[in-house]
Amino acid sequence: MVVTTGTGPMLVQLLILLGCLALSVGQYSSCKSLVSTDDGPTWEYYACQPRAMAMKQYMQIKVDPPGITCGDPPERFCTLENPYLCSDECDASIPEQAHPPTLMADAELSGGGVATNGISGGPVTYWQTVTWSRFPEPLLANITLSWNKSLELTDDITVTFEYGRPTIMVLDKSLDKGRTWQPYQFYADDCMEAFGMPPKRVGDLAAANVTRVICTEQYSRWVGSKNEKNVRFEVRERFGIFAGGPALRNMDGLYTRMESMKGLRDFFTFTDLRLRLLRPALGGTYVQRDNLMKYFYAISNIEVNARCKCNLHADQCVVRDGVLACDCEHNTTGQDCARCEKGYKAKSWKPGSYLPTPNGSPNTCEAAGSVGNCECYGHSNRCSYIEFINIVTCVSCKHNTRGQNCQHCRLGYYRNASAELDDENVCIECNCNQLGSLHARCNETGFCQCRDGTTGPKCEDCSPGYTWKQGCIPNVCDEEFLLCQNGGTCFQGQKCLCPPGLKGVLCEQAQCAGGKACDRASSQHLLHSGLLLLSLLLSLLL
Ligand SMILES: *[C@@H]1O[C@H](CO)[C@@H](O)[C@H](O)[C@H]1NC(C)=O
Ligand SMILES: *[C@@H]1O[C@H](CO)[C@@H](O)[C@H](O)[C@H]1NC(C)=O
Ligand SMILES: *[C@@H]1O[C@H](CO)[C@@H](O)[C@H](O)[C@H]1NC(C)=O
Ligand SMILES: *[C@@H]1O[C@H](CO)[C@@H](O)[C@H](O)[C@H]1NC(C)=O
Ligand SMILES: *[C@@H]1O[C@H](CO)[C@@H](O)[C@H](O)[C@H]1NC(C)=O
Ligand SMILES: *[C@@H]1O[C@H](CO)[C@@H](O)[C@H](O)[C@H]1NC(C)=O
Ligand SMILES: [Ca+2]
Known about the structure:
Layout: H1 9-25, E1 32-37, E2 40-45, E3 53-54, E4 60-64, E5 75-77, E6 88-90, E7 127-128, E8 141-161, E9 168-174, E10 182-188, H2 191-195, E11 215-216, E12 230-233, H3 236-240, H4 251-260, H5 264-267, E13 269-279, E14 298-308, E15 317-320, E16 323-326, E17 332-333, E18 339-340, E19 382-386, E20 391-395, E21 401-402, E22 408-409, E23 413-415, E24 427-429, E25 437-442, E26 448-450, E27 454-455, E28 461-462, E29 466-468, E30 472-474, E31 489-491, E32 495-497, E33 502-503, E34 509-510, H6 519-541
Parallel strand pairs: 10-11
Antiparallel strand pairs: 1-2, 3-14, 4-8, 5-6, 7-14, 8-12, 8-13, 8-14, 9-10, 9-13, 15-16, 17-18, 19-20, 21-22, 23-24, 25-26, 27-28, 29-30, 31-32, 33-34
The structure holds 2-acetamido-2-deoxy-beta-D-glucopyranose (6 copies) and calcium ion.
């Protein structure tokens, strides 16, 4: 509902009426309504969601591999029921004989639009592939359906096949606009043989394992091409487990589970679907090599009923700049209403909730400054009053922030100059090298404070004359100032490798010949043991 300017008493009455009507028509169907209170009419807010729609009208269809669609060049095909009647021809250049992918999503001319029983009045239109002329190479086809929007299934996905259903196929889904995919359901006439999975039905599932990905043989066995044309992904039956059976009489039960059961909402959510067709209908047990023109795929309709996922913050979903998007309420924004609008980030964003039934909780975004006059820039949901010093302060600041208003970065983090104060990315980790830096703090541009001999923004490099060894330590030798003498070579800046007969830090001393007394060396030795004794004493004393 839209607030109009100059709302007169009549209009207010009407709005109140409409609001009540909307609420009585269905749960979660309106985001707000004007209610009369002692202080006059005020808005009340509710969790809300858009209506379910036939999503085939918004889907982008992509078919792979290229050249899988029949008709270029023209090709004749037969049917499984009568393999000797091969009068039909697919020809992409003649509209009446072409079978492009768009015909999977068009409205059938009559018979209520959906050819569920195949006896709709008008001609059934369908996409069709080339025939299996390259047998035994598998006949493979992928159909990718994309919406570029998170959607939530509200009813079964139904795919209608003409000329027989595939004997092996997989339904995949993506939650991230096609970047990653996961299997949704496997279909085969023999699940064990095709996928090594025992055959199951949705009827075998219980509340605890309703999100299990199963392989079903229910839609892949040969029953004649005209008797059963549909392959389903059963949504209603799964809902029924929580909603009091297939009639879905107890939607509260389902919605309560949606809130409490991990992964349940995501299970019904998707942005893309993909049908992987792996083997066509055979009309029997074997492939007849002498008539491969009767094997192909043909799909006349794909029905996907779903609603836009708006996180219970919108009751309308509209096409904006060619993209489906939620019409966000509750001062949220974004394609899925998954953020608070600018200036409404007093608390961090939360999806609306189905609970408590029947109206749920809107979890609206609050204007900055409205929560006990304490702005937390969206990094905290709670404020606390500290009587002792008479201030209101944010509690448990998130996103690595701290401070009365969560306006500072935590120790070891610095302010992201390109982010607003209410941005989740406002604080960046300093990442100071523990061994090379004096402490975890850094300055406003992320530079850490380094120990002697250490350098670099994060204190992970050594200054000249130093070598990294769990921190930077001064060199004993190097190539410039502390040169090893008498042909010695410097090893990792830490010691001179002396030629035979030489010793000392820089190989400056001659080693005593074996057996002969060597005064300088023995005195050196004495001095050395004296030092050792001293350090031992010191360590005992300290
Ligand atoms: C279908 O998609 C799957 C998964 O991305 C891919 O491995 C396969 O090659 C595709 N098949 C065809 C025929 O494009
Ligand atoms: C998909 O939607 C996003 C908005 O969320 C838009 O920026 C992008 O252009 C759309 N992509 C396509 C292919 O329509
Ligand atoms: C689901 O759980 C029920 C009851 O716990 C069990 O009988 C059934 O075998 C399970 N189904 C699957 C597919 O694991
Ligand atoms: C959202 O902000 C508008 C002002 O832009 C305000 O009138 C409205 O009441 C707010 N709605 C909610 C749910 O807070
Ligand atoms: C800084 O904030 C911007 C805007 O939110 C973000 O795109 C960027 O990734 C952030 N930088 C870092 C290093 O996190
Ligand atoms: C942070 O420290 C670096 C290195 O000491 C310095 O170049 C930079 O100017 C400092 N930035 C600020 C904002 O002080
Ligand atoms: Ca059609």
